[in-house]
Sequence to fold (449 residues):
Amino acid sequence: MVISEIKYEQVIERLRFDAEHYQPAFLENEMILKRVNCVPLREVANFSKARRNPENIPEEEFEYIDISNINIFTGEITTQKLKGYRAPSRARKVVRENDIILSTVRPNRNAVAIIPKKLDNEICSTGFSVIKTRKINPWFLFAFLKTKYAINQLVRLTMASMYPAVSEEDIGTILIPLPSPSFQENIETVIRKSYKKLNEANAKYNEAESLLNKILGIERLDFNQDKIFEVGFDEVEPTLRFDAEHHQLKYKQIKKVIYKSGYKVKRLKEVVRISTKKIDPTQEPAKYFNYIELANINPSSGEIEEYSQIIGHKAPSRARMVVKTKDVLVASLSGSLDNVGLVPHELDGAIASTGFFVISSEHFLSEFLFLLFRSDLMKFQLEEKAAGAIMSAVPKTTFGDLLIPLVPLEKQRLVSNLIKEFFSLRKEAKGLLEKAKKEVEQYIEKGRN
Fold:
């Protein structure tokens, strides 16, 4: 049993009567922060009220930032290009360069980012607070908001409901440390270095993707988008698939592209190992396992950004697939086909969800195979194979029938080297971000004034 003793004046000060608000971890967090020079956020920053309704200019295109567009590990922002007439009702807040956007919903997920110059004057969701700094370095504030000391405060302030959220008024009360300007500038330097490496990494990925498309001859795919088409019975009979989606013209066209690639074409099961190796963690009830789920793979980069440690006796029934370094994980669910990952060295021997196909090959370099399955060449084939109404997925019985071109190793190596650089640069960048965060946490823990 966890017990906290709270004084009456503490309750009156906050008008919070829920026991969760006074958990020992939250009280300790507050005590540590009060040992350093801290001020409420509202004293060093303002909350922007700038708004714009894109629907008023229906044909104008804009960049929209939703909460799902924030990488919770790096703060990177991916945007959605929308025209005004397609703007969701929550697309209203205007952001400017160096603004900080902080999710007010589920703050434990820590969706926080700093707005780059290229997104100046674009629009974000009303699910963000848009913070404009006045007396604090925005890059330092961004780093602090990534620390456990900020997250604990935000989670503590979350309203107790089925839809956890924190009000902007409460966000203004969180304690912010104010180290010397030189310390803040040092944190800014580290984060800027990190972001430079992230940009270099993304450039390598884009280069690899362009090279792959050139090798495969899919630089400019122009598919017939006709909504109406005819399919003969001789095409339906082999698969007994009567759903129109299965017979879309683009699936026929992608197969033509594969056969015209100039390479020998094989079925996947002929040249790729589709692993069937499984274990049952519940047979070792006291042992801990590293477990990779579909949601652990970043669909934008293919990185396995997090994983959980599960104890054998609590392992879910889907935690069964044994993976090794350089295995490629391909999601089988039709809604997650972008979730293709490459198993890193530190996850050798981990357990993956049965929602993945685990593949490797002597004919393909792992990095090349990874990028190939992230291309339209393979994704369209996976879409075609997907079956099922509620949870549409690619059946194990047909996964091995995908067509794959046998690209020579010397060409694969060019792509593979770029992907290796991509992963290496992103690892360095994340290390720098972690360094900045740790330096801020150490400053707080040392109780400097």
Remarks:
- The mean pLDDT is 88.
- Residues 222-260+264-406 form a domain with the Adenine-n6-DNA-methyltransferase TaqI; Chain A, domain 2 fold (CATH 3.90.220.20).
- The radius of gyration is 25 Å.
